[in-house]
Amino acid sequence: MGATPWGFESPLRHHKADDMTSLSTPSFEVFSGCLLGLALGDALGAPFEGMPPGNYSIDCMDGILSYTDDTEMMINLLRAIIDFEDVETSLVAKYFAEGLNPERGYGPGTLRVLALVRQGIPVDRAVRSVFPEGSYGNGAAMRVAPLGLLYFGDEERLEEAVIRASKATHVHPVAIDGARVVALAVSYVMRGYELSELPEYLVSKVDTDIFADKLEKVNFALKHSVTKEWVIQNLGTGVAASESVPTAIYAFLGFGRDFERMINFCIGLGGDTDTISAMAGALSGTMLSEKGLPENCLKRLEHYQQIKEIGKRLYERLFNF
Ligand code: AR6
Ligand code: MG
Description:
With about 325 residues, the protein is an all-alpha fold. The chain has 17 helices and no strands. The longest helix is centred in the N-terminal third of the chain and has 18 residues, at about 30-45. It is globular and about 50 Å long. Bound molecules: ligand AR6 and magnesium ion.
């Protein structure tokens, strides 16, 4: 009872029947919603990166919405997975290094690591070349959301895949916790669990004290009405995983039912707006599916069709994972 085509016992067996349906037959719209939500959040957040906090609004009236390194890395990660039906660290690093467009706004540490990989330095050495303990940036967290789709029924395999995907550039435990939180949150949303319990669930999954503490603060923020200034000061808006992933989780839980409102909230915080919007965007896109994303923005998104095509190829391989 409750077994799904993936052979695991459905965690939704005590949930509503309609939730169960969505678990056993995840729709393609959910897949494309996650990928496009990430890309759209990234592209909409990018013009506001590094701005001071303010009351900004996204604009999808004209022009192309260009994405940055967040989406490029997601695409290259998925290409590696589609080609090899596995997440293998050195292969993922190779795809990142070879598919890299240096104009996409990569973090300086990641650019250096990938330059070394291109020169043939083994990835486990390259990743410690800039910071001996590895980067604690949000570069691993910003790209891994779709892993939560692929392994949504098997937490253990999901975590293994996330760690392998992260270690292509980020080995610091804080960076890995950030990636773990994003991917587990996507799988949690896909399983249709109670969203108000997401922060506590994530607290039970992280390795680092800083992440446990920040996720407790997310929980607090959702239960009390906090100001934007509180979010900036207590959750953060920086490039460290611990200064941006909890903020994205908060933005999603607070505003994710309305994608545009959520992105307006994210860009209004200032700081690393593209990556916070990308991570929140992937979560909201998973929950709303593609049809819940703003159509006028989607049709201006750079490489919309190519991203959707990658989603399709991933979806076709779902049964292989
Ligand atoms: N010690 C000191 N500083 C560090 C450390 C460390 N161990 N780790 C990171 N930093 P990076 P990312 C600081 O370069 O994570 C782009 O805009 C250091 O200043 O690994 O791939 C993306 O879109 C380092 O340069 O990049 C993301 O929004 C910075 O954190 C963002 O940059 C970022 O780490 C991060 O991408
Ligand atoms: Mg970026």
